[in-house]
Amino acid sequence: MKTVKKNKKERLDFFRSLYENAKNAHSGTLEDFRRHMEQYRGSDEIDGGERALTVRNITYEIVESQVSSDIPQPKADASFYSEERERLAVSIEALLRSLRDRLPYEKLVDLDERYTYIYGGSVWFVEWDSNADFGDIHGGVRVHCISPMDLIPQPNVYEINDMEYLFLRFTTTRGELIRRYGISEEDSYLAELEVSNEEFDTGDTVSVILCFYRNEKGDVSQFIFSGSATLSDIEGYYKRKIRVCKRCGRSEGECVCEGVPTFVTKDVESETVRDPRSGEACEVPYYMPKGFPIAIRKNTSVEKRLFGQSDCEYIRPEQQAINKIESRILQKLLRSGVTPVVPEDTSIAINNTVFGQLIKMKPGESMSQYGTVDTTPDISQDIAEAERLYEHSKRILGISDAFQGIGETANESGYARQLRISQATGRLESKKKMKHTLFAEVDAMIFQHYLAFSDEPRELTFKDAFGRIHNAAFNKYDFLVFDAERGEFRYDDSYLFSVDLNAGSSYQREALWQRNLENLTAGTLGDPTDPSTLLRYWQCQERAHYPYARENVEYFTELVRKGGAISEPNNGKAEGAAEEKRS
C-alpha cells in the first residue's frame, strides 16, 4: 500500500481518513453486531418499532448451551520427515503447551465462544512483548481475544491475508499512553475520549486506533494514533530495531558523544551466529513473519463475509415471534379475572378484592340471583405455539435435547449418553472445525514470533507415552538450515499446525475414562493383574484427567520400580503378613 511519506501531521491525516472511510463502509456490519448483542442480552426491541411487554430469552439459552470451555491442544508436524525435524516438532508442541498453562487461555476461550456465536466470529491478536518477564527469561508473546466490534477491516476484502490494511480499536487511559508510547502529558490531551458528554464523563479513558498495513515492499507495518495524537509509526513491524546516535552511529549504550546526543531508530537486518559446520561466526538474516498477527474464527462460513453468520441472526424471527406471543399471554392474564353478577337494585358495592366484602342477603332474596362470570382466557394455544417456535429455533442450529442434557434416563450409562450427544451434535461439527482451525493459526503465529524475537533458549518439560517427565528446550537456532541454492542460512518455518484430537476435551472425558477401563478389562493393555499394565492404565486415565489418577500413577510407578506385587488389603491380613515377613 502506498502511504504518505511526508511529515508527521500529513501521515496522521492520511491514516485518520483511511480509518473513517473503512469505518463508514463497515457501519452496516457494526449495526448488525450491536443488534445481535442486544438480542443476546434480552432486548425487548421488535423490528418495526414495537416493544415487547416481556421477553423470553431463548437466544441466551441456546447460545449458552453451545459454549464449551475446551482448549484444543497443539499438534505440530514437520512438512517432510526427518528424525531431527520430528524432534523439533516436539519442542514446538512443548512450547505451545507451556503457553497454554502460562497465558490466560481459559478467559480467552470463554470470550471467544460467546463472541463467535453472538457476532458470527472472534478476533485473535498475537504480539511480542519485550518487557514480559518470565523469571530469568525476558520477552514473550501476548495473546488477546478481541470483540469483532473492534476490528475495522479493509472494505470488500474477506480474508485477512488478502488485505492491505486493517484497524483495531482499544480503550486505555491517558497515563498508559504516556507510559507505553512515551508521549508528553500535553500531547496526551490530544487523544480521543472514549465517551465525551455531560451525562457520562469517562475522565481519562481514551480510544486508541492501531493500523496494520503493508508498505510498498509488502512488509507488515504499524501506525497507532488517538484523536490528533500520533502514538507510534513503525515501518517494518517485524524488523529488529535499535536506537543509534545520529552523530556517531553507535547504539544508546555505546555512544560516547558529548552533550545530549540525538538518537534515531534503525533497522537491524541480520544477527551474528556460530556456523554449526565450521564453528566460525557468520551473519544470518533475522526471521520475519509475513502475515498480519491477526486470526479470525468463523462461526459458520458465509459467502463474501469476513466473519461467519451469527446464531442470533439465524433465530431472530423466532425470538421476536416468541416475544410477541409471551406479551400476548401476559396481556391476557393481566386482564383476566372473576367478575361478580348481582341484581340491578343491589345496595352493596362489589370489587375484585379477595374476601374484601361481606355480602348480606335481603329478606326474600335468593342466592340464585347472584353469580360470577369467569373471564380467565385460554392460553394453551399460545403456549403451544411459543414452544413450537422454540423447538424450531433449536432445529435451525442443529441443537437437540440430547445436546442440552434434556431427556436423560436414570439407567443410561455415561458412555451411552456420550454416544447419543455425539450423534446429536453432528450438525455442529463444522463449528468445532472452525475453532480447531483458529487455534492452529494462532499456534503458527506464536511459533513465528518466537523464531523472530526469542534470542534465548526456553527451558520446557513434557511427558512421554509412559508418563515420564522429560526436559526440553525451544531454541530458535535449532531451526537454522543452510540453503544451498542461496548459499546462506535461513530459519526453517515449514511446519504444519493442527490440534491434538486425542488430547480429550472436557465433554469427552467420561467416554475416554470408560474406554480406558474397557481396554484394561479386555486385556489390550496387557495382563490386568500385572502392576505394569495397571500403571499404563492409570497413565491413560491421567492424560484423560481422571480424578486422583496422579496418585495411582505414583503408586504403581513405585511398585513397578521395586518389582513388587500388588498388595490386597483384607482386614489388615496383608499388612500383618508383611510385618511377619520382615520379622
Describe what you observe in this structure.
By secondary structure, this protein is of the alpha+beta class. The strands form eight sheets. Strands 4, 5, 6, 7, 8 and 9 form a six-stranded antiparallel sheet that branches. Strands 3-2-14 form a three-stranded antiparallel sheet, with helices on one face. α8 runs antiparallel to α9, α10 crosses α12 and α12 packs antiparallel against α13. The chain is built from 15 helices and 21 strands. The C terminus is likely disordered. β2 and β3 form a beta hairpin. Among the domains are: 221 residues, no CATH class; 64 residues, no CATH class.
Strand percentage, roughly? 15-25%
* Rg for CA atoms: 34 Å
Number of strands: 21
Low-pLDDT regions: 568-583
Oligomer class: single chain
